[in-house]
Each structure stands twice: as structure tokens, then as C-alpha cells.
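Researcher: Please predict.
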Amino acid sequence: MAESLVSGVAVRLGNSLIQEANFLCGVRTQVELLQTELKQLQGLLKDADARQDESEAVRQWVADARELAYDAEDVIATYALKVGSRKGGSIQKVVKRCAYILSEGITAYNVGAEIENIKMKITNLKMNFRDYGIKESIIQGDGSSSSNEREREHRQTFSHLEHDLEDEDIIKKLREILCEKKCLVILDDICDIETWNILREAFPMKNTSSKILLTSCNKEVSLHVDTEVFLCELQCLNMARSWELLEKIVISRRKDCVTNVNKPNIEKLGKEMIEYCGGLPLAITVLGGLLAAKQTQDEWEDKSKLLRVLNLNSYQRENLTKDIGRFIHLRFLSLKNSNINKVPSFLGNLRCLHTLDLRIRDSPVWHLIVPNIFKEMKQLRHLYLPRVYKVSEKLALGNLCNLQTLLNVGPETIKMPTSFRFNYLRTLDIKIQVYDEGPHLIQMLVSGCPHLYQLVVFYPIKKLTETHQFSPNLAELELTFTKLEEDPMPTLEKLSNLKILHLCYESFVGKDMVCSEGGFPLLQYLLLDYLDKLEEWRVEEGAMPSLCHLIISYCGKLKTIPDGLRFVTTLQELEINFMPKSFKDRLDKGGPDFYKVQHVPSLVFQHSDKER
């Protein structure tokens, strides 16, 4: 809806006045007035959106409002980028600043004129709405504080989520419906195997009349779902057919604007754009819809204004075109599973990004360099670094105060001030890159994230962080190759909100592990994998009172299942994978340990039919 778009732009302009105060000082008053105009326009759009069917004029006015909102945001973002890129602390930059002062004054004057032009158009648009009889709604709040806006948004979000079902309840409900009824389920764009593994529990593959239609750009996903799956492999369009489709959508509708003089130039621009569509008809159709509304070649050339989302998943070329560095209004950029061999420095121009996914495909390019480009990406919410990479200088992430997701970060690859805090970070994945820097940096990272929900550590820390240094909200924890020498359970079992715990390859290198009475009050899922030194695991009565799913894999020296599991009455499934045959035999009906698990509805044994 145009109303929500205009509202979002008004809020972001308010945030810019605070976050970019130094850069916007030359046009601050104009930006404040523009924000007020947008809020007044927002008040009219609620009724206008609902009455678009009444008149072609109203539909056009709503479309104009959407364009004006984009124009407003683009003008401010462009100005902040131009001025901000000239400011810095080195002697050379200070000298250059003297030469730029006059230029900045001219830039501010031009931007001020553009803002006045947008305000005049908004005023005319408001008059049209009012003359037509569009009612004005009152917008609550004065917008004077972006932090208040964020706080209100935070409260509204969580008041809604409080009534949501738990994941396990949703999975159970879905399975019941799909087994009892005949349904067609469409899962669109499952991009990787990991995503399917997360979803698969909710969708029964056998003993059901329901059918699942799954789409993916990754053939491996379809083969992983089921070896007997019916595979319909669609071919992407080549360049000629891609252009034919775009031409059909755009040029055939805009014959009045396309002449023999400018058609070659428009065709050249169009072919440049469809390269990013990857031969996908839907992407080309969406692009065509955007371009069909553009009147002139100049508007086509200003393609950076159109782009907010650029998905280059599985991009096959080794280098990115420099044009991407000009798309300064991008909010989302993904290079996941692409084949690029270099992360270009011009990505640092994309200061409006909310999501940046650099998880390129693993390849022999083990020396991929990630440049220090994140300092000015202050709006970034989600940053996914490559699985394996190096840095020429440590990455400065201290300014990214809005981060919610940070994956594949290594303590030796980042530069953080000692007093930093990621107040909004919910997911943190710490991966080993080199061994030369230690656990104290990990401890600093973890303790600086007070609202962390999910934590993954792949690093030989040897000693676990104290319980009080973990986020009290931590619900998912995965430890791999941490090489803990002391039993981690006395620390981890005090994490009162922990629901999922993975102890993977050499996370613990000791022999004994004990879960105490009252420990892990909310734990529902526990994985013990490749703990090849573990010999004895004890579970006291009253421990893990909420456990539903337990998996034990590759723990070859573990002698027997804990006696205390017989008191865990909530346990629904026990999986034993790649364990010695003698371990499995003890759990079979009639075996000496069967009494410990006879209450468990589902016992699953995989690859445990021989001694190991």
C-alpha cells in the first residue's frame, strides 16, 4: 500500500536526521519540512488507497504519491553519500576537504531545490485528494524521536508475537492436517538443502494423500527431498528470449515513447538490466512492469532508482560489474552460492543496505579477501560473510548498531571497540578462520550481545564463557570444535530459555558429562554428535523436564544410555546414529537398557548394525 510506503519513508527521513546529522546539516530544515509534508500525505492515502476503484484519477494520484516517496528518499540518500564520502580523518582527506567546501555548498543548494520541487508536487497532490473528497486520517505521534518510533514498533511486534504458537505446535498441527486431509502444498523458492531440512519435519512424505509442489533454482534440493521425486526441470531463457519477453511487455506498450532514434539506446539499456534477471521469466516480467511506467530514456538510464532488491544467488561470473556500486538505494543484495572470486570494494557505496549476503559457493579460491567496507553501512540488519575468507585489514563493525544477524565472523577478522554493544543482534555465528587469536575476543562478542537468540561457535575456545555472560534470551546454541576440557553442562543447564542445544564435533573432549536436577528447564532438542572421548553421561531425575527429541551420533566410547532418561517423560523421539551394535542391542526390546526408553514413542536406529 502507498500509505505504508510513505509512512516508512517519513520514519526513515527522521532516522536520517539523527544518524546522518553531520552530513545533512546543509539541508536539515528542508528535510524536516519534507518529513512533515509526507506525514500529511500519509493521512490522506489511507482513504485514497481504499477508493482506487472509483476513478482512474485516484489510481494515478496514489501512484504519483508512491513515486514522490521514492524521490524523497533517493534525494536524501544520494546527498548523504556524496558528502559523507568526502569526510574522513587522514591528513590527505583534510586537505581535500578544503577543495570540496564550495562543491558541498553547491550540492546542498541543488538538493534544497530538488526538495522544494518534491514538496510543491506533494502540496498539489494533497489539493487534488481534498478536492475529490478524500478524508484525512490523523497520524499518531509527532515523529520527533526515531528511538521512540523504534520502541513503539518493538512493543507492537512483541505484543503480537506473545500469542503466536511455538514452532513445535505449528509443526504438529501442519502434519495432522496434511495426514488427515488431501492438500496441495506449494513451497516456492527453497534455495538450499539447509532450508528444506528446517522445514521438512512439518511435511510428511509418506502415509498421506497430500501432495507437495516444491520449486527451487538448485537441482540438488529436489534430489535431497526424495530420491523418487518427480522432477520437472525448467530451462531459463537465453538472452535473446529474455529480451523478446521484456520488449513485448515494455516497448509494445510504450510505442508512443519509443522512436527509431532512441530505440537502439533503450534496447542496449534493457539488455544490460536483464543480465541480472538470470533468465527467470518472473524477474523479467517484474522488471518490465517497472519500466513500462517510465516515460523517457533518461528514466531508464536512472535504473539505480528502480532497484531496492538485487538477488544474484548462484551468479556464475567470477567478477561483479562496477555498475552495482552505483545502485546506492539497494536494500537487499545476495551473492549466495555465486562463483565470484573477489568481494569488490565498491560494495562499500551501498550505505542503504539492510541485508548483505556474501556466502559465496565453496571453491578452490581459499584466499578470498573481504575488504573493510562495512563502516558506513549503518542501516545494515543482516550480514552474512563467506564461510572461508581472509581480510587485508580487520573489519570495522562497531558502527553497525542495527545488526540483527551476523554470520561467519571470526574473532581475528573484526575490529571492535571494547565498549561496543550489539543491542539488536539476535543471531551470531562465530567461525574459525585462523588460530592466532583467542577466546577473550569471543567472550567479548558474546557478552556484548544482550538480546542474542541464536549462537553458533566453531572455534577452539577450550573454556566456556560464564553463564551470566550469555544473553538471558539465548534459545539456540551450537558448539563445534570448541574443545572444551571441562564438562559444559553445569554452565549450559543454567540458561533458562535454552530450547535447542547442539554439541558437535569435538565440542567437548572430556570423558564425563552430568545433567543436574532442575537443569535445562526448557530444553526441547539435544544433539550429541562426534563426542568421541565421551564415556559416561549421567542425567539426574528432574533434569531436562521438557526434552522432546534426543539424537546421539558417533559417540563410539559412550557405554550406555543415561539411567535418568527414564524420568524424562516428555521425550517423543530418540535417534541413535552410527553407534556400535552393542550400544543398540542394549536398547532393543529385551535388552538391559530397554527399561530406560520404553516410554519413548519413537526409537530410530540408523547405521548402528555393526561394531565400531
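Model: The radius of gyration is 29 Å.
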